[in-house]
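Practice problem 4.
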């Protein structure tokens, strides 16, 4: 079944994502940082109680609502992938959907179960279920500088690019979405434009004389030019 092939891609993303998170949980302390490639690629262990880039809903039921939203989005993406496979859509588009699905499931696992099994839920929550915090660790601070005093935004402040800390699931979602945006014309080519009835009639009216018309004309001309 074709759907199984794309489901395996999503499962691969989930396995890599969860393995990396559990290894960080097992071998690093919260806030620890390890240089992987120089100082511009580091593993930085932190917990994200909200969405990507630390966005959160600041109320008692915000985390629960976010987890429920993630579960609903995961189900919707899975169904959309299944229906898209049945419609034989572009292979590249289906792979992107599988990447997005795998990333969505990876973060849903954190939000749903980590509060119970890893005890990393935020304090004051009514239940540990559905209140787990997402483990992030990928950190790419490519460059850092002090903003000049003459610059109108944050003069004299510190600026770092790229400052967000994220995980494999976030990366998979990002890659899938950006690839769809870049190659959308290839994934969804416009069908060839069909001529309307009016255009067809107009073309027929402008067609040149047929062979029979030309033959009749030539015969008439030769008859008129024969000597008496």
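Answer key:
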């Amino acid at each position: 079944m074709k759907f199984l092939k794309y489901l395996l891609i999503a499962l691969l993303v989930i396995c890599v994502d969860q393995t990396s998170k559990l290894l960080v949980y097992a071998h690093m302390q919260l806030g620890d940082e390890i240089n992987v490639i120089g100082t511009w690629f580091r593993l930085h262990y932190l917990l994200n109680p909200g969405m990507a880039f630390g966005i959160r809903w600041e109320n008692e039921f915000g985390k629960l609502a976010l987890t429920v939203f993630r579960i609903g989005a995961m189900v919707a993406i899975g169904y959309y992938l299944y229906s898209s496979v049945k419609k034989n859509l572009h292979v590249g588009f289906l792979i992107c959907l599988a990447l997005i699905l795998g990333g969505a499931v990876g973060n849903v696992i954190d939000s749903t179960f980590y509060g119970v099994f890893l005890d990393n839920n935020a304090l004051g929550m009514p239940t540990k279920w559905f209140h787990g915090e997402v483990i992030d660790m990928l950190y790419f601070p490519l460059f850092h500088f002090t903003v000049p005093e003459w610059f109108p935004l944050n003069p004299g402040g510190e600026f770092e690019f790229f400052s967000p800390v994220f995980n494999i699931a976030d990366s998979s979602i990002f890659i899938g979405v950006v690839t769809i945006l870049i190659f959308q014309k290839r994934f969804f080519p416009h069908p060839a434009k069909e001529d309307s009835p009016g255009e067809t009639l107009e073309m027929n009216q402008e067609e040149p004389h047929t062979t029979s018309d030309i033959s009749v004309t030539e015969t008439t001309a030769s008859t008129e030019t024969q000597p008496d």
